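Bumping with the actual sequence this time:
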Amino acid sequence: MLRSAELEIHSWTESKLAQHVKLYLAHKCCHLWYIHDAGHRDGYNYDSIGATDGGFEQATVGTGFPSSPWVIDHKRVQLGHGKALFQHARSALQGWKHFQLGWTGVSDDTPVKEGAGVCVVAKTLFMWSANPLKIVYVKEHVLPSPLFPSSLRPGSRHPGAPVGSRRQVFSFAHGCLEGHLLAGEERFAVEWDTQDDSVWFDIYTFSRPAHPLALATYPLVRWYQKQFAQDSSDAMLGLAAQANKC
């Protein structure tokens, strides 16, 4: 069975060069595992494949979404306004910009297409870990605008969104494979509401421990999950701010 790689680091103050070398080696290890290890061939380590396909509003879930004992996380932030920003945010997702956070990353040449293998590398405490996933789906959606007033959504321009208005959504999800520290699925989406012109970034996840190490350190795991959602949102907000200056 594929196991997560744990690459020890000796100091929090190590040079950036050393950090990049470790990240490079972890990526190479993961790519080799995808080719040679049974973990990729055996597939996902959970049953509700594709359950994150939906749930684009707060407190909603996709069809067939799993219940307890899964932990559900949802982070949603407004990036700004306009079709151009939506297209920029979509390109950022396709280039994994939301994952390049310093302490976590994905090789930027990883294709965003259904069935593609993904290696997520992260530094937690005094080690690097590399975990295998696979992209479950990639979708371009055209959805109705929400039925509740857009005034309830922070930053929206107009007092309401009439029935018949549309949202364009680009989304993809990756699911955990055998050997990942966690089981579950994570969806990333960018959305453009054509009624109020608002652009949103959305992360939706269900997960639970799938390895004794994750179970033993679960409070820390949860802290890192929440930190990732915050840092990823901040990264997308930063990219949006740069795009708005152009």
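The tokens above came from a reply further down the thread. The mean pLDDT is 77.
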